[in-house]
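Dear colleague,

Following up on Tuesday's group meeting, I ran the structure prediction for the two-component complex that the binding team flagged. I've pasted the input sequences exactly as they went in, so you can double-check that nothing got truncated or mislabelled along the way. The structure tokens for the whole assembly follow below. Feel free to forward this to whoever is handling the docking comparison.

Inputs:
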Amino acid sequence: MIQLFDLSKKFGPNVALNDIRLRIRKGEFVFVTGPSGAGKTTLLRLIFGAEKPASGYILINAINLNRISRPKLDLLRRKIGFVFQDFKLLPRKTVFENVAIALEVIGLRPKFVRKKTHQTLRLVGLAEKEKSYPLSLSGGEQQRVAIARAIVKDPLILLADEPTGNLDPQLTMEIMELFRSIHRKGTTVVVATHSQELLQATDCRIIVLNQGTISEDTP
Amino acid sequence: MRSYFIRQALMNIRKNLSVHILSLGTIVASLLILGAFLLLFGNLNNWLQRWGTALSMSIYLKDGISEYRRDNVYSFIRGLPGAEIKRFISKEEALKDLRAALGDDAAFLNRLGRNPLPASYEVVFESKGTHRVDPEKIKEELEKLDGVEEVQYSNEWLNKFEGFLNVVRLIGFIIGGLLCLCVVFIVTNTIKLTIYSRKDEIEILKLVGATDWFVKTPFLLEGMIQGISGGILAVLTLFLGYLLLPTKGISLLGLTPLDLVFLPAGYLILIFILGAVLGVIGSFIAIGRFFAV
């Protein structure tokens, strides 16, 4: 499903990732962890095609991201859900519109878009807030909107960058249960986190990044 | 998806209303000037055609012509197709007209022993349908009549007027072209401002898998809406101006008074389409440099 070959990424003189080799199988649930600046976010952004590697290459479902055209990358992104650390919500759109946009860009029927968006907002516990604007929500609520937008399209791959960073322990457990239920449906899930509680409570594969290299890969 | 694009385009306009109003005002002004020019030019062209097909002729009579022969000449003129006798000028009236035209220099006329000016008929010929007036043939026929001294006609000045209209047409094309460029420039900058104000939103749309066209289409619609609205407002303003200004019986160069007619439907549609096309071109230029995410 996701294969990284000798992958390196630099930002100016700084090496963010160095010679990463990694294979994540279809339907796997993987945590990526490590200290701040270890390269967790960069790794997810490279898999998403939001960054270009300095060297090496990435295969997603056997598609080489180095050679993919812009329109095909757009289509590929429709199959990948991404929960951004800074949420990346549209401030001028309501909660409902922020989630629905992920389905609207695919060109699905408005009736289906409405139904699926309502369902997903109920799933993340935000049905009551669908008419609110992101800036009127708490950090935790904004994070759940971001999660709803990532999962509403039933992605083949879900990439989540610190998805529980702003949530209390109770909500963290609920969101992780949500990820697990998506995973049970066959979605490959990759979660970047530095939450020790989450890592201690899981029996999933954990990849530890340190200064841009994989220091540990616990199956 | 179509409804999404329209909603998005209208929302863009609403969110940047002041910029759009300013831009719309300039588009209206540009298209209004263009429309006013089309109105004026179209009417001048029509008038020229009507005057061009109308031939005026002066038929000078011999001195001392009998009333019987004058009636014969009169009846002959009346029988010519399309002929309309505008005026009979007697010898006395001709002298009076000349005296008025000369003003202070008319004193020498008092020293003349007799009135040397002939009486005349002023006749205008209108072309009807496919029939065209042949001035040379009419002149020959009239000069054969007893009592007719000479026949004169001239439409030389109309050829000069046509030349003048060609210059006006050229100037019109240049001004029209510059105004179109102006509209494109304004729309481009307005859409650029909208794109800039939605930069973050566009980035997020691309991140959730929106194609370039999904992002671009609302901006193209926005430009088109601006252009069409500009066209409609310009035509309405022009029509209002047409209603308020005197448009009946306009007399030019002492010729037959004519009415100013409003632009035909084809021209109105042309202004709408021009507005829309210029709006879309402006948007296209603005979104040309689209940022890759």
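Chain A has one domain: 24-52+69-218.

Cheers,
M.
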